[in-house]
Amino acid sequence: MKIWRWVFVGLVCTAFILRIDAVELGRRHPTERISGSAGDVLEDDPVGRLKVFVYELPSKYNKKILQKDQRCLTHMFAAEIFMHRFLLSSPVRTLNPEEADWFYTPVYTTCDLTPNGLPLPFKSPRMMRSAIQLISSNWPYWNRTEGADHFFVVPHDFGACFHYQEEKAIERGNLPLLQRATLVQTFGQRNHVCLKEGSITIPPYAPPQKMQAHLIPEKTPRSIFVYFRGLFYDVGNDPEGGYYARGARAAVWENFKDNPLFDISTEHPTTYYEDMQRAVFCLCPLGWAPWSPRLVEAVIFGCIPVIIADDIVLPFADAIPWEEIGVFIDEKDVPNLDTILTAIPTEVILRKQRLLANPSMKQAMLFPQPAQPGDAFHQVLNGLARKLPHDKSVYLKTGQKILNWTAGPVGDLKPW
Ligand SMILES: *[C@@H]1O[C@H](CO)[C@@H](O)[C@H](O)[C@H]1NC(C)=O
Ligand SMILES: *[C@@H]1O[C@H](CO)[C@@H](O)[C@H](O)[C@H]1NC(C)=O
């Protein structure tokens, strides 16, 4: 049985340290990365290269909302809260707005949850608008650039489009007031109205301590070839099927449900995290959005992410060598997944596993408390620092106005 070959792969992978010729690798696997040695996270220290001013807002925009529902600290959009806390005590923070390179407005737009814990984004546009109105009338900095030197964390499914259904999100488009701002967002899909150009794509939040608690000995053999837990169909929201995940998840199930190399199911076992550490490949197909926390989990647990999401923009893609650590499958090629994955040479698998074992790769995927060098917070700062200095054209002439404060759906204009 083929599967024993993979058990063997798993056994030897931890013992091996492959020597890789960085130049050779770079030539064979060209990536969009800026620099850094092949297979490593781009090393970059943001401290001293940028200064961030944090607006002080009434607590109804942030802390009060969290007090109402503590679940906002653990769901996949929690980065907006942790980013705020991080910046308050970060060495890049300046209390003098005159010397700031970037301005940050701490608004928690994804913390309004249903009883089931799903974030409702319906009030977010009004809330964001209200916050921008407030900073623009109380400080002179917004009007100077109409937000071009401001950044906002908008980790919801479709970022600043503020809707969880793609069609509606596209129809809404990004909030007009954020037209000139930089967005720090989870949503990453090329050529999509909800991915604003120049955005910094971040990983979804996955709780570091919880994952840590499920670590199993590193030498445990990887006896599962392909692993996946999650929905294949979303009957509730997509009764006819085929629309959810653009049919890619349904194709995984239909083609491989009886294939012994595939350990796939809708049931989330209590050993989910442990199982990922026993798997060679972890499927990361799109759902309603191209990303899911599986990507972070796969990296943390050293399981090679098999990314099935055409045109996905991965988190910190300019710093992390995704092409080297993951496997990319076109959505149309899902029926050939078994052939594609079994054809990957053992040494390629070993190399990907070795790269995944690099602690800096894992660090970049997490928002730990307290923050640590190279973590996702620092990657965001690196992204902001790389956009400096601002182009002179961001500063508007006196009286010059670009934004239209009454644009967008009328419902969004109601006071918050
Ligand atoms: C910024 O511009 C708006 C109108 O566009 C004005 O109401 C506001 O007072 C201005 N802010 C400051 C601080 O001057
Ligand atoms: C601003 O947007 C509103 C709503 O779309 C539109 O009616 C109005 O003409 C726009 N104003 C300007 C100055 O473009």
TrEMBL record:
<dbReference type="Pfam" id="PF03016">
    <property type="entry name" value="Exostosin_GT47"/>
</dbReference>
<dbReference type="GO" id="GO:0080116">
    <property type="term" value="F:glucuronoxylan glucuronosyltransferase activity"/>
</dbReference>
<keyword id="KW-0333">Golgi apparatus</keyword>
<keyword id="KW-0732">Signal</keyword>
<dbReference type="GO" id="GO:0010417">
    <property type="term" value="P:glucuronoxylan biosynthetic process"/>
</dbReference>
<dbReference type="GO" id="GO:0000139">
    <property type="term" value="C:Golgi membrane"/>
</dbReference>
<keyword id="KW-0812">Transmembrane</keyword>
<protein>
    <recommendedName>
        <fullName>Exostosin GT47 domain-containing protein</fullName>
    </recommendedName>
</protein>
<keyword id="KW-0808">Transferase</keyword>
<keyword id="KW-0328">Glycosyltransferase</keyword>
<dbReference type="GO" id="GO:0009834">
    <property type="term" value="P:plant-type secondary cell wall biogenesis"/>
</dbReference>
<dbReference type="GO" id="GO:0047517">
    <property type="term" value="F:1,4-beta-D-xylan synthase activity"/>
</dbReference>
<keyword id="KW-0735">Signal-anchor</keyword>
<dbReference type="InterPro" id="IPR004263">
    <property type="entry name" value="Exostosin"/>
</dbReference>
<feature type="domain" description="Exostosin GT47">
    <location>
        <begin position="49"/>
        <end position="343"/>
    </location>
</feature>
<comment type="similarity">
    <text>Belongs to the glycosyltransferase 47 family.</text>
</comment>
<feature type="signal peptide">
    <location>
        <begin position="1"/>
        <end position="22"/>
    </location>
</feature>
<dbReference type="InterPro" id="IPR040911">
    <property type="entry name" value="Exostosin_GT47"/>
</dbReference>
